[in-house]
Amino acid sequence: MAPFRPVWLANAKLRYEWTPDVTLSATLYNLLDTEYASPSGLPSEEGLPTRGRTYAFGVEVSF
Q: pTM here?
């Protein structure tokens, strides 16, 4: 992986209130699947490669 360079990332999140007590959500991280490295804190110029496009789903329940 190349040395650090500036990047733009796009994320998206949808939330749907199914009932007053239940909310569903879906999140998409790194929407454009940009390759970049995250600083590792180690004495290296490369950093840690990221996973690319990832997603998460959630359910929020209130009672």
A: 0.71
Torsion 56-28-36-41 (CA) sign: negative
Asked if residue 40 lies in contact with residue 50, where contact means CB atoms within 8 angstroms, the answer is no
Spatial neighbors of 51 by CB under 8 A, at least 6 apart, are 30
Query: pLDDT digit string (tens) for 18-33?
Result: 999 999 999 999 999 9
Distance CA(19)–CA(42), nearest Å, equals 47
Q: In terms of DSSP bridges, do strands 22-29 and 48-49 run parallel, antiparallel, or are they unpaired?
A: unpaired
31-61 burial code (b ≥16 CB/10 A, e <16): eeeeebbeeeeeeeeebeebeeeeeeeeeee
